[in-house]
Specification:
Layout lengths: L5 H10 L16 E3 L25 E7 L26 E3 L6 E4 L2 E5 L6 E6 L13 H14 L1 H6 L3 E6 L4 E6 L7 H5 L7 H4 L25 E7 L3 E6 L19 E7 L2 H9 L5 E3 L3 H7 L3 H4 L3 E7 L6 E6 L9 H9 L3 H7 L6 E2 L17 H9 L7 H4 L10 H17 L2 E4 L2 E4 L7 E6 L5 H13 L3 E6 L2 H9 L5 E6 L8 H6 L1 H4 L13 H11 L4 H17 L3 E3 L1 E2 L2 E7 L2 E2 L16 E2 L1 H11 L2
Helix pairs in contact: 9-13, 11-19, 18-19
Length: 617
């Protein structure tokens, strides 16, 4: 996700989609939209409760980026875009970090849609402008929509049901939909980044026409709170706060965007990036390694209090992460083979010996949310599954899905026996110590494609278990550019797939699971799923007429995905592990759905002086 503004953006996208709201009056204008009822803040609110409205401006922060970048244009498929690029752009609406499924007007001052939700109209603020002083107009919005949908595979799928955008007033843009009743479409349109048409259709310093379909290292113009100050391609990028940012005094921005500069420095791998934190070269880190968290933070700056270490609790759905099989490859096309791989994974041993007991095994594609399935299907959920009964694994109707649990060595041995039996049923047998296809003689091998070595210590014990089944497993470590290129074209056996879920699953499900996305280069259908039952359930999710229907469709989809064994589920932690040099402060009551760094934090020069002095001692 670091490769796109979709780091903050896609997660901000998903955070805007949640439970369905009551029907609002047709053509009524709204300052905010919420899919869970009434937005928390009224039209005349002064600022969000979870910010410090008096936060001082100033200071800087240096962050790490692993892998580097080769473009500042986030649209082309597989773009290896600079971290933080979303800082330079604004959206029609901005999300609240403390409210699921709620967006407040940013570029747009208000929004309206008819009762059947066949379209949505955004009314732009007259004062909105890009950071070069050019007014931001409906033409920019329309052009941005067309280009994002034409150039980006992600946006093409995400906005699939948005068929047109047209100017319908001096400051109004109306988006028309190909379907009615899609409750989230009016809102997800508001997540669109607005690009400067005049800049992209102009010429660069050498007089060459710019091309939004191509990569570029020319700093683009945006309308957001930051602009690019400098770049050193492959090494660093620096963003500086725009002091006269047009939207700085809007209630949704009060107390935010406080740091003067945000600098990303590129490191070759996460280990080096961690060493940079210890040395004070990097000043904030979101830790994703349980081992580092448990054993790596005993360096002098932590014990002296110069570096703070915190587990920030989050009330967010966790989705699922796992070893995702590329089912486009014949050897992984049989669900019995994929199930055997899951039976060989000893999560309990890994959690105790590798993760220091920090994690919980992911039981669902909608982990930590009401959309996760449990028990056996009933009611509307069962009706949806019965509509596709011939294309749904029979276990869906008879057995609650459970990951294998290894409390004792006997449990693991039993799971090995089950795995070998499944492999035998699928036509794979052990000959001379190797698992081979009984008909073709092909050896079963597994290669995991990665662009850093974080998972190596986790996978190696798992590979030893696979070896007991006669399977040879290896890691293919490539650089970031190769990783992007190979994942874009689905050139791998398996990858660590991450499928983040929102509080109201919707249109993004197509890009995750649909048959159309399976053949679209750069899509997030990492697994290559082509399943008619999945396609139909995804449509039910997107067109759910009310909250109960949405819950039923999600749970039904969850069961179908789980019982097809498309991946080996990993684990989750309902919180953010953060470490930072004690130069920064944040509001006492922070948001519940993000740690808010660096957006709502601010720089404390007095504390920074003490911290910097401690480095020399």
């Amino acid at each position: 996700m670091r490769n796109l503004p979709l780091a903050a953006l896609i997660l901000s996208c998903t955070a805007l989609m949640a439970q369905l709201s009551p029907t609002l009056a047709a053509d009524e204008w709204h300052h905010a939209l919420s899919l869970i009822g009434t937005p928390q803040y009224p039209p005349d609110f002064k600022h969000f409760d979870w910010v410090n409205p008096d936060a001082p401006k100033g200071g800087s922060v240096t962050l790490s980026d692993v892998g580097g970048y080769d473009t500042l244009n986030f649209l082309p498929a597989g773009a290896n875009t600079a971290s933080g690029i979303g800082l330079i752009y604004d959206q029609l609406m901005a999300s609240s970090l403390d409210e699921p499924a709620t967006g407040y007007g940013l570029i747009a001052e208000s929004v309206s849609y008819p009762e059947d939700r066949s379209s949505v109209t955004y009314r732009l603020r007259k004062e909105a402008h890009f950071n070069d002083g050019t007014p931001l107009t409906p033409d920019d919005v329309i052009w941005s929509f067309q280009k994002e949908k034409d150039v980006s595979p992600f946006y093409a799928e995400y906005y699939k049901n948005v068929v047109s955008a047209e100017k319908t007033g001096e400051h109004d843009v109306t988006f028309k939909f190909s379907v009615k009743g899609n409750h989230e479409l009016p809102q997800i349109v508001g997540e669109m980044l607005v690009l400067p048409k005049h800049w992209w259709e102009g010429k660069d310093a050498k007089g060459n026409p710019r091309d939004i379909t191509k990569s570029t290292l020319e700093p683009p113009v945006g309308s957001g709170p930051y602009r690019i100050k400098s770049i050193d391609a492959g090494h660093s990028i620096v963003y500086e706060r725009v002091p006269d940012y047009w939207a700085k005094d809007l209630p949704i921005n009060v107390g935010q965007h406080n740091l003067d500069t945000i600098r990303y420095v590129t490191y070759g791998d996460p280990t080096v990036a961690f060493e940079a934190l210890k040395a004070g070269e990097v000043e904030f880190r979101a830790e994703n390694s349980s081992k580092n968290w448990a054993t790596g933070y005993d360096f002098k700056a932590v014990t002296a209090g110069a570096v703070k270490k915190e587990l920030y609790p989050l009330k967010t759905p966790q989705g699922i992460q796992g070893l995702a099989f590329n089912t486009r490859r014949k050897k992984f096309s049989d669900p019995r083979v994929r199930q055997a791989f899951n039976l060989a994974f000893d999560f309990e041993w890994s959690n105790k010996n590798l993760f220091f007991g920090q994690y919980t095994r992911s039981p669902s594609y909608f982990t930590n949310s009401e959309y996760a399935s449990s028990g056996l299907p009933t009611g509307r959920e069962l009706e949806l599954l019965n509509e596709n009964k011939d294309q749904v694994p029979p276990e869906v109707f008879t057995t609650e899905y459970k990951n294998p649990v290894n409390n004792t060595p006997d449990d693991l041995r039993e799971h090995f026996h089950q795995a070998l039996e499944l492999l035998k049923q699928a036509g794979w047998v052990i000959k001379n110590g190797a698992l081979v296809n009984d008909k073709t003689g092909e050896a079963m091998t597994l290669e995991v494609l990665m662009d850093d070595n974080t998972f190596e210590r986790i996978l190696n014990p798992y590979f030893q278990n696979l070896k007991r089944l006669g399977i040879t497993a290896t890691i293919r470590l490539v650089d970031a550019a190769q990783f992007v290129a190979r994942t874009k074209t689905f050139d791998y056996d398996t990858v660590i797939g991450v499928f983040a879920e929102s509080e109201s699953p919707g249109n993004e499900q197509r890009d995750f699971w649909s048959s159309a996305a399976a053949d679209a280069p750069g899509s997030r259908n990492t697994i290559g799923i082509k399943n008619p039952a999945v396609d139909k359930l995804v449509d039910h999710i997107i067109l759910a007429k009310d909250h109960d229907e949405l819950v039923a469709a999600c749970r039904a989809l969850d069961r179908v995905l789980l019982w097809n064994h498309y991946l080996v589920p990993n684990w989750y932690l309902a919180g953010a592990r953060i470490a930072y040099w004690d130069k920064f402060r944040r509001p006492g009551h922070g948001p519940s759905r993000s740690d808010g760094f660096p957006t709502i934090w601010w720089y404390d020069p007095t504390a920074a002086t003490k911290v910097d002095a401690s480095k020399t001692k």
